[in-house]
């Protein structure tokens, strides 16, 4: 094999040139960021953490706070570090506050009670929306998983939800090929409905009788009270 420029051998590399990544200088770590990321967090905050809490209370963003601390303290915190550290600060302060509540050194205020109810309602609504989204995806995922399990089965999310409800309620019709006694199935269905209607009628009758008993007792009580008032009036005469 011949090489360009009439070389019969590959050109030799200079011995002074670097031969690969092994000769590269290792990256210089950032000691400030390295050390500060490991500063312990307790309920008693230092001045830097107090600034983070104060700026977050003023609705400053993580990027803004990181820039301010870099200018004022030379902290080297990134926006991601600010967000993570602020969460850890709040958890530490919450833990310290739990101890104060347990030892009766601190008590809930009326404003805190009102804010608690508001915060709970906000997050309850948020969670209900998330659960609704998860539920909406449940049967869509079920339909695709059903197809993964049974490759020739293509039932929609709506069909899966309807059929599962029928199965759980005991109302699912079997496939005609699997139904060896359709007359018996129809008879069982009628008997089941009759028993259900009988229970409903009995409950309604019991409710009516309970209401009548209540009314009878109410009028009886009124008659007794009138009799007592009359006896007392006769005695006063």
Mean pLDDT: 77
Strand content: under 5%
Largest sheet: none
Count of alpha and pi helical runs: 7
Give Rg in angstroms: 39 Å
What structural class is derived from the secondary structure elements? Answer: mainly alpha
H and E order: HHHHHHH
What general form does the structure show?
flat
Fraction of helical residues: 55-70%
Distance between the termini: 143 Å
Description of the structure:
It comes from Phyllosticta citribraziliensis. With 237 residues, the chain is mainly α. Among the domains are: 31-106, no CATH class; 108-174. It has seven helices and no strands. The chain has helices spanning 31-36, 47-57, 62-73, 79-102, 110-149, 157-169, 182-236. It starts with 30 loop residues before the first helix and ends with a helix.
List keywords for this structure.
disordered N terminus, mainly alpha, 237 residues
Write the topology of this structure:
Blueprint lengths: L30 H6 L10 H11 L4 H12 L5 H24 L7 H40 L7 H13 L12 H55 L1
Pfam family, one: DUF7626
Protein name: DUF7626 domain-containing protein
InterPro entries: DUF7626
């Amino acid at each position: 094999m011949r090489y360009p420029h009439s070389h019969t051998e590959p050109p030799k590399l200079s011995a002074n040139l670097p031969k690969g990544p092994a000769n590269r200088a290792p990256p210089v770590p950032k000691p400030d960021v390295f050390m500060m990321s490991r500063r312990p967090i307790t309920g008693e905050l230092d001045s830097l953490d107090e600034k983070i809490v104060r700026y977050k209370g003023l609705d400053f963003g993580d990027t803004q706070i990181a820039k301010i601390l870099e200018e004022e303290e030379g902290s080297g915190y990134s926006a991601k570090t600010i967000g993570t550290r602020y969460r850890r600060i709040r958890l530490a302060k919450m833990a310290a506050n739990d101890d104060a509540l347990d030892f009766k050194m601190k008590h809930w205020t009326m404003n805190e009670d009102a804010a608690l109810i508001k915060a709970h309602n906000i997050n309850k609504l948020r969670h209900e929306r998330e659960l609704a989204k998860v539920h909406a995806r449940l049967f869509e995922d079920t339909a695709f998983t059903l197809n993964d399990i049974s490759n020739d089965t293509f039932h929609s999310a709506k069909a899966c939800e309807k059929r599962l409800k029928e199965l759980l309620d005991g109302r699912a019709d079997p496939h005609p090929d699997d139904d060896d006694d359709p007359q018996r199935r129809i008879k069982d269905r009628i008997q089941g409905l009759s028993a259900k209607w009988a229970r409903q009628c009995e409950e309604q009758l019991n409710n009516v009788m309970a209401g009548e008993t209540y009314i009878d007792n109410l009028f009886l009580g009124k008659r007794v009270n009138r009799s007592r008032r009359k006896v007392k009036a006769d005695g006063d005469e």
